[in-house]
Amino acid sequence: MDITKEKVDDLNAIIKVAVKQADYQGKVDKVLKDHRKNATIPGFRKGHVPMGMIKKQMGVSVVVDEINKILSESLHKFITDEDLNLLGNPLPKLDEQNKIDWANQKDFEFSYEVGIAPEFKVDALSKLKVDYYKIKVADKDVDKYITDVAKRYGKMSNPDVAEADDMIFGKFEELDGTGNVKEGGISHSSVIIIEAVTDKKVQKSLVGAKSDDTFTIDPKIISPNPTDQAAAIGVDVATLATIISQFRFTVEKINKIIPAEINQELFDKVYGPGVISEVKEFRAKVSDELGKGLSADADRKLKADIQDKLIEKLKLKLPDTFLKRWIVESNEKPISKEQVEAEYDDYSKGLQWQLIENKIIKANDIKISHEEVVEHTKGLLLQQMAGMGLPENSDEELTETANRVLQNEEEAKNLYMMMYDTRLMDVYKNTIKLKEKEISYDEFIKVAYNKK
User: Fold this and answer.
1) How far from the centroid of its chain's Cα atoms is residue 335's Cα?
2) Staple partner for 319: which of 115, 258, 405, 443, CB 3.0–4.6 Å?
3) pLDDT > 90: what percent of the chain?
4) What is the pTM of this model?
């Protein structure tokens, strides 16, 4: 067997694998012999079916299976040995896939297209200048937070008529071009929070809504957050971007939250029995928590600004044609080329940032051990138990629970990413020239979301 790589350009290459009959025949013969031992065909005793009949029955499929195994193993070994930094996975050349005569060929040559990550250096961190926002906690921010907490622990009622601070539960139904419910269209029940609606005219029209009232609504105006917009009609954000339809929203019921009273009962529910005993302490605690939360918001804004500046500065080139084909062929659900084109810029930006971030991690020798993730997870579990007013478990019990959480691959991945983000933020703050700007929360929202 012979494997070679032919360079197309700096971002694309062809890997060719020549497979001779000697490379696979022994494995094929073994599989056929094993099958013959257990084959039961009318007219023959078990284990005595003629080999010619076995080969005729399943010889080609065994050849295909064994050659595919050889290809998978040899490609993986070649990529590892050659230290190829690939994007996506090798794809068989389209013009060669249907030319193979599996029944008669003895020797084969397979060609795979591969996309190669660009070569670059990240030596620009110390030269970057980025604004870093220090968000002030105002009394009105504390008031709003306390109002939200009181609602969270409040009681639900179902009035007949909606007011401005109510939620409306109902059903979204996709409309066709004539304004009728689209056959086979999207249908999903969810809630509209009146105060969150971004179109003031629609928001005003929803005040006074009653059961069975209908409204024609664009789901993109029910919240400033695309994730909330998508969730309202039961789709993902990528699908939402392709939807141009209006929706009929039929009111089913009104949900009103009656806030809990600001008293000892609420203090105990939020922070545990006896931790807070008066309103002044409650406000101080809320202010402290808000400060921590706003600091996290400022860090997210800082990361986004660093990301934009580095992507713009480095201008990484990617094997775009290859990646678009790879996205189509590797996606679990069918995806059209038109959808790939519509979403590719965002995908490209995300991939560029992933490459840049990995380079920064390597340059700064950032490593997260399993033991560190376990300790981090234990800390999160302690916070969770304290928030629920539960007694602390022993260290042994915490370790056992943390390890159980980390057995979930998705949970483990998120926790590792969380810790890498923290370490990277330390690198950014210690390396980049940050210009601190004190700003109110309202001003920060305008800056962060480009609102006027």
Assistant:
1) 17
2) 115
3) 68
4) 0.70
